Amino acid sequence: MDKIIISDLHTMGIIGIKHPERDIPQEILINVTLYKDLRRAGLNDSIHDTINYSSVAKYLIKLVAESSFYTVEALASFLSNKLLDQFPAYAVRLRVEKTQVVKSAQRVGVEIFRKQLN
Q1: pTM more than 0.85
Q2: Among 109, 113, 58, which Cα is nearest to 84's?
Q3: Cα gap 24→47, rounded to integer Å
């Protein structure tokens, strides 16, 4: 299956269990892969036969900014469901990482894979 990939999308949102994490938005890094057959887009050279990655990126930035979750797992699940509802993808792989939470690590997070139910 073909893939549309967005790497290291920087977003800002409220995520975490304790204060001060819940007081101000923090950086949340997102990597997303949308699975879709892209043969037609390759033949027609038409944006209408693919998924516009700019639209996906803007949508993710907006969703994260408007959300407030305690766990990265809940945010990742929410985002993957929204992507599958909004865009014509067969499946999505989504990695959500917090960049400033564990002092000895650059990032911590989760990666999930979800498919359309129908």
Answers
A1: yes
A2: 113
A3: 37
